[in-house]
């Protein structure tokens, strides 16, 4: 059994008179501990695929299974529970909460998970130090640069060591050194804790880290290479 199984996924969008096939009968499976980059031209369906796997968007047809459990037909609250406990998101749309400090943003998910305050503080401080934000934990997002905000978002996604991290253009705002640090963290989590990473990216620097590279065009997989 694969950790993630996608079977014959279809997702269409109506745009004016035309129908866009964001996912066109796409099937793919990922093992636990996979480290995958999704590439492909803008509009090829990368984000739509991550959304489907993360239970963020309804499909027209097809099945998504996480650890053998079908998730595409679950209720909103069942999906929220799976997201909370199994998946870390590094998505632009999941941006930081502006009224919370960097540390509070990182602690937010742990708070919802019911982790006690002292443990939350300890874990949040440790992960903020790891992503190079020590001393900035009391700043609000608006007081941080784009790249620093991105690192807070990454810290929040990985602090609870989810089984799966879904990342959509995680290095979009990062200079080379910050990109390398981020990818090294991803690789360490992947190697030491067998966290699965699915990363949609246009960044060839990021693709160099992938163990498996999938290329999408028009909602289909056109290349799938494992190194
Ligand atoms: N909510 C929506 N309404 C209408 N069309 C949509 C919607 N979401 C996605 N699409 C369309 O579906 C197609 C796939 O979009 P998607 O965002 O998955 O592509 P992508 O490969 O992630 O692109 P990018 O690299 O630019 O992020 C695109 O043509 C997009 O315009």
TrEMBL record:
One of its GO terms (cellular component) is transmembrane transporter complex. One of its GO terms (molecular function) is ATP hydrolysis activity. SMART domains: AAA (SM00382). The keyword NAD does not apply. Keywords: ATP-binding, Nucleotide-binding, Transport. SUPFAM superfamilies: P-loop containing nucleoside triphosphate hydrolases. Residues 4-227 form the ABC transporter domain. PROSITE patterns: ABC_TRANSPORTER_1, ABC_TRANSPORTER_2. Belongs to the ABC transporter superfamily. Macrolide exporter (TC 3.A.1.122) family. This is ABC transporter ATP-binding protein. It comes from Arenicella chitinivorans.
């Amino acid at each position: 059994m694969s950790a993630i199984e996608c079977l014959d996924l279809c997702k269409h969008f109506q745009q004016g008179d035309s129908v866009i096939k964001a996912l066109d009968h796409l099937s793919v499976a990922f093992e636990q501990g996979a480290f995958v980059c999704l590439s492909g031209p803008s509009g090829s369906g990368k984000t739509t695929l991550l959304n489907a796997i993360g239970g963020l968007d309804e499909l027209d047809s097809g099945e998504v299974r996480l650890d053998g459990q079908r998730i595409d037909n679950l209720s909103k609250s069942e999906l929220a529970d799976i997201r909370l406990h199994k998946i870390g998101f590094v998505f632009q749309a999941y941006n930081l909460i502006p009224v919370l400090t960097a540390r509070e943003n990182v602690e937010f998910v742990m708070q919802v998970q019911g982790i006690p305050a002292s443990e939350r503080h300890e874990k949040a401080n440790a992960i903020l130090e790891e992503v190079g934000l020590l001393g900035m934990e009391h700043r609000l997002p608006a007081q941080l640069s784009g790249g620093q905000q991105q690192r807070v978002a990454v810290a929040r996604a990985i602090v609870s060591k989810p089984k799966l991290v879904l990342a959509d253009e995680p290095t979009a705002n990062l200079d080379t050194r910050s990109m390398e640090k981020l990818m090294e963290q991803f690789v360490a989590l992947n190697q030491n804790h067998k966290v699965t990473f699915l990363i949609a990216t246009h960044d060839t620097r990021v693709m160099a880290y992938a163990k498996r590279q999938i290329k999408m065009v028009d909602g289909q997989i056109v290349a799938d290479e494992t190194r």
